[in-house]
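input
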Amino acid sequence: MQLKSSWRLLQRVRGRLRRAAAEAEARAGLAPFVKKEQGRVALRLSGAPVAPAESLDLFDDDKVSRAAGLSKAEILWSPIAPQDVVDHGSAARFCIDTWRKREDLRERFPAGLSGGREGVSGWFREVGPVELGLSDAAIVHVLDALKSGVGDRARQAYLANVALVSVLPQGLTPAGMHDLFRWFMQSGRRQSDLRLEEIWWLFLQAQHDPRRELMLAYSFAPAWQQQHRDGLTVFGREAFAAWFCAEYGAAGSWTHPSSWPDWHGAVDQIRIGYWARSAWRSRHPDALCDKVAARALLAWLTSAEAELPEAAQTWCSNLDADVVSTELVKVGLNVIGHFCYPSGLRVSVESMVEGLEAVGVSTSLRDVRTDAKDDPHHVEFRGAECHDMTVIHVQPEPFFDQAYRRADLFEREPRPYRIAYWYWEFDSIPESWVAHANQVDEVWAATEFVARGLRERLSIPVRTLFPGVKLAPFERRSRTYFGLSDGPFTFLFTFHMVSVMERKNPLGLIESFKKAFRPEDAVRLVLKTSFGERFPAQMAELREAAAGANITVIDQVYSPDEVLSLMDACDAYVSLHRSEGLGLTMAEAMLMGKPVIATNFSGNVDFMNEGNSLLVPYELVKLGKPIPPYGADLEWADPSADEAARLMRRLYENQEWARELGARAKASAEANLSLPAAGARIAARLEEIRALRRPAP
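output
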């Protein structure tokens, strides 16, 4: 025990030293850009003009080398010959080489590495074998690279670096590309563990469409959003563009608002303008909840009294007033949540959004970053806070207080009606949650088990609103894809190490499995987890407990598609959890037609019963010691290891009956857990809230 404690202490010390070294390196790499930014701010404060931004020529090796401040060998690779295209990386480098040296290709397919990949893909298919000398296998790699988002991780690394974005918010526009490219090549590449082709691909994409990059920069710069609250709408873009050009020394056709595409639809532009301008709200207080008032707003916007720029006034005159006013008064919801963090929280928030959209409720979505290892799609969730109600689908700790910052979103004023969507695994909540609840107007919970604990401590409304469950499309894969053999009857349990291993109780499941089966039985238990490297001691304990039995431990981050494929490839699902706020994986297994064994306690009993699953009896026990974030005095279930073993044995010995139970589970889940039904319940509550908030006549 003493050796284990010493080992853990040594691991923590090493971890702190690595973090401290990484932070020092990051500060040093950013220092020259901070100094330059301080000089720019001083110039602006003095009233002096900012010098034109330095340009970046991505098609001249000498110039790009000088921009990076490094030799060509450090920022470029040796030319990729056609026969060297053997994988994704070499294919991406070949595409970049071809793109940089073929001006004719760039003229023919101007969006080649950006949005218009279909045209250039067809060109590679057509001329690849003859003109370029690519083999059939190489062409497959090239086409895969063109559609895979090679630059996405580099963009994610940029957006996740709060200090960097605060210094270079314009970094991917022509007004900042020179400096950002230098940062990536000198320090960012190493800090973010990026490949050269990922950085090059990002900058070639950005160089192609500077208008889009300016709009993206605004979308993820809260300070800009605060200063120009409708800066990407027809009402405020001229003022925003003039400010940007003066602030950063920008020039060129890409800065002219008349050339910008519509970033938001007409209805959302009006909503954004409405919340940005108090005069509109004072003059038309019911415009977003009453169709007659909405039409009056639209008519007013076309008049001289509204004092809009001529282009905006003309734009309003060309709208279909009946269609736009109808859409303006529909209930809508801003949703801030983990759309890119692989977890049950992501599945929950995605289900909520899909359910709402199924019943005609429009949503505006923002992703809350956890770190740069999230799926690299943060940039796709750039909705404005344009509706009058916002759900913050983020746990109270550790990110609730930071939700807007991590969503790169300005907290809109006037403040919308805020709703927290929280999960918890006990019938009482931590004291700190009460303070978090002061930031919202009401709280929603997925199950009555969670809601009861919230109601005991909170004075604001608490509603039980199940998010709905649906199986996302997934590819059916054989067991061999996951390193499993085809023969044995296979039980599965999936869990996230970050979700507290003691609560998920895989050690109790291992104990029950060992009681139920002998090593010679044709049966296997698969424990699928992720982020085990963050919890080395617990992973070692898990692997040690599994040793000597037909138990496979998988510690990998799978895509949602792969997680469902693994569940599909197994025969039954088992969760001997001590407590669950919802029990999403159990619901998914039921929808898939798998027989499910689970502890008869907490959130899962909202949809599991003795007719559609096998429920394991339990005793309530105190934790007895703090297990962060849970306190020692909380109680959770201690499921019966013997009864769980008996139920697993029963499924194994009567596999036809197991399949019948799975069919009953599927029918029950499809009837009770649908997304449209959940969406309708949430929409009804939104209508109630809006009615309560409507200005008195």
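quick obs: The chain is about 50% helix and 10% strand.
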